Amino acid sequence: MNVQTLPRTVVNTYLSVARLPLNAVAKVSGQHDNEQWPPALAFEGFEASVETTLGSLLRNDLLLESGRVRQAKVAELRKAAQLEAVADTKRELAQQEVREAREQAAAKRKAATQRAEQREQNIEREATQRKAQVGQKAAKQTAAAQQTKAAQEKVIERRERAATVQALAEESDALKAQQEALEAAETVDTIDQTIDGTKEARKTG
Question: How many domains does the chain have?
Fold first, then answer.
């Protein structure tokens, strides 16, 4: 082991020991393989700072290069985390917009359904009213027709009674004339018999 590798080994050992509690927490929380986990990212930034600082102080190119590589990695991870956070925000906004659009569409469908039901109820109510009006009109017409028929029947009945009375009067007049004719005939017979009796009396006298 040369002078360049010794400080790096010591630093890596120190940092590995310092990372043990963080690894335990990451394992428990299920973030062991998540390089973008904020505590892990912060600790790796701390590691990069330690390596860069010690590499510069000790003039150790290996530590300095390792620190710079780690810093670049941390920068990329942070950038990726920021981009992912932005993407998550945009995704949440998009999902929210989709939810709002669905809610608005559902509200519009509900309102349209309610309007259609209201229109149907109005149509049914108007149809019922028109049916009732037609029924009332028909009832009035029927009543008027019945009244007209009753009036016509009364007129006919009066006319029939008048005709019957006239016929009875004419029949009575005919009977009276017939009676008078019979009486006249009987008178003639009586006169004839009287005349015949007179003639017979003259012959015998």
Answer: 1
Spell out the per-residue pLDDT of the chain, length 205, in tens: 444 555 667 777 877 777 788 778 878 888 877 777 888 788 888 888 888 888 888 887 888 888 889 888 888 888 887 888 888 888 888 888 888 888 888 888 888 888 888 888 898 888 888 888 887 887 888 888 788 888 888 878 888 787 787 878 888 888 888 888 888 878 877 877 777 767 666 666 5
Contact (Cβ atoms closer than 8 angstroms) between residue 26 and residue 32: yes
The whole-angstrom separation of Cα 23 and Cα 40 is: 8
Residue 2 — φ and ψ, nearest 5°? -95, -175
Residue 164 buriedness (CB in 10 A; 0-12 / 13-18 / 19+):
exposed
d(CA 70, CA 82): 18
Is 162 within the bounds of a domain?
no
Q: Is residue 120 part of a domain?
A: no
Residue type at position 67: G
Side-chain-side CA neighbours of 180 within 13 Å: the count stands at 6
Question: Which tokens sit at 147?
Answer: 């009244």
3-state percent breakdown (helix, strand, coil) of the chain, nearest 5: 90, 0, 10
Model pTM above 0.70: no
* Residue 32, domain extent: 5-112
